[in-house]
Amino acid sequence: MVEPAPPSPQAAADVVAQWAHTIRTTAAQGGRLAIRGGGSKAFYGEPLGGELPVLDTRALSGVVLYEPTELVVRAFGGTPLAALENLLHAHGQCLPFEPPHFGPEATVGGMVAAGLAGPARMAAGGVRDYVLGVRLLNGRGEDLYFGGEVMKNVAGYDVSRALAGSLGALGVIVEVALKVLPRAAGECTLRLPLPLPEALHRLACWRAQPRPLNANAWLPDDGGVLWLRLRGAQAAVDAARQQLLAELPGGASADPDEAQALWQGLREHTHPWLATPPSPAHGLWRLVVPPTTPAWPSWPNTLVEWMGAQRWVWAPLADGADLRALAQQAGGHATLFRPPAQTPDAAPRFSAPEAALAALQQRVRAAFDPQQVFAHRLRLA
Questions:
Q1: CB of 324 within 8 A of CB of 31?
Q2: How far are the Cα atoms of 108, 127, 329 from residue 79, in angstroms, in the given order?
Q3: Count of other CB atoms within 10 angstroms of residue 32
Q4: What is the mean pLDDT of residues 160-171?
Q5: pLDDT of 1 above 80
Q6: Contact between 106 and 58 (Cβ < 8 Å)
Q7: pLDDT tens digit sequence for 253-307
Q8: How far is the C-alpha of 95 from the C-alpha of 127, rounded, in Å?
């Protein structure tokens, strides 16, 4: 995908002015708007509740500023995510949190609004860790700037990073400045046959050691296999590979093409385990818990990522309460990530926030969108 050229300053200003007018008019009429980019993550979060007028962020697309030597890029929210990543790749750089696309139409603004990260999340950090600044249209149609293009520009409330995962609740992301990093020189993936309890134990031990662990995935196939990606300086990767294979003689280095397909499939949910529900009545549940949480005997068919912190389970809606309770008891939470095909709108996606957090979310939303113009996919109560 070719890097999209940004519009002229006047053309961009005209689009923003039109958006602001639409927001103010909608607020005055007591209406609501749905913010939409490519729509590749429209399945994620609470249903919007009916057909609504759409504010399409793709009307503003392009990279506004890219300074490879400064590791900073600034782009309009409607910029295709694939185009941005291709530009970074051409300069030997990347978004290290591996944001999922879930389709070719994914945008930079949608990436921030969804706040989702891929297999490298535990090692590299999440979306919010790389957001330096944003330009936002709030529910009053005001054109606001937060943060900047360097880490030290953040002062007071860090609104820029609060937008990561906000799912449209606070406003339209017009522009976003991101920190990027050089691509690692060395990479290797190991295939280690291990049952889940032993895999979790070893991950906990390895996490405390100075090894270039970048991503992991435990799959229940063939009695259990732990896939471990090493990434960093070539010498460090080579040394870690030798040490780990000596520690686990049954393991082996994976073919690079096989490894690339695995991590891409996990990132984009095209891997057969994530893409194929057991039945149309099953939904895909995402449980985020402390990494040291033991394996669950009642859910043996679980895909585990993020050093044990992210666990995927296929289950019908009737099991949702049990899954939420299981995650809460462990100190985490459960999300209905993809609803069942049979009843897509029959259950809340997110666990209800605690009262104090819900009150804080409501106050923040009221400050940005007092008329509740923006339809969003969060659960605020």
A1: no
A2: 6, 16, 40
A3: 18
A4: 92
A5: no
A6: no
A7: 999 999 999 999 999 999 999 999 999 999 999 999 999 999 998 888 999 999 9
A8: 9
Query: What is the distance between the alpha carbons of residues 313 and 341, in angstroms, rounded to a whole number?
Result: 16
Residue 248's closest CA among 292, 287, 206?
Answer: 206
How high is the pLDDT of residue 25? 97
**How far apart, in whole angstroms, are the C-alpha atoms of residue 139 and residue 371?**
7
pTM: 0.94
Q: Positive or negative, the Cα torsion across 58, 39, 48, 354? A: negative
Q: Which amino acid belongs to residue 179?
A: K
Tell me the C-alpha distance between 135 and 220, whole Å: 44
Measured distance CA(149)–CA(131) in Å, rounded: 9
118 contacts 97 by C-beta, under 8 angstroms: yes
- Write down the pLDDT at residue 160: 85
Residues 319/298, Cβ–Cβ less than 8 Å = no
Three-state DSSP string of 122-170 = HHHCCHHHHEEEEEEECCCCCEEEEECCCHHHCCCCCHHHHCCCCCCCC
Whether residue 144 contacts residue 138, with contact meaning beta carbons closer than 8 Å, is answered with yes
Reference 145, options 187, 174, 114; nearest CA is 174
Number of residues that make up the chain: 381
Bridge partners, 173 (sequence order): 136
> Nearest 10 degrees: CA dihedral of 352, 117, 221, 343?
40
Angstrom CA distances, 380 to 36, 66, 131, 357, stand at 20, 36, 23, 9
pLDDT tens-digit series, residues 302-353 = 999 999 999 999 999 999 999 999 999 999 999 999 999 887 777 899 998 9
CB atoms within 10 A of CB 314: 21
Return the bridge partners of 307, or none.
none
Average pLDDT, the chain: 93
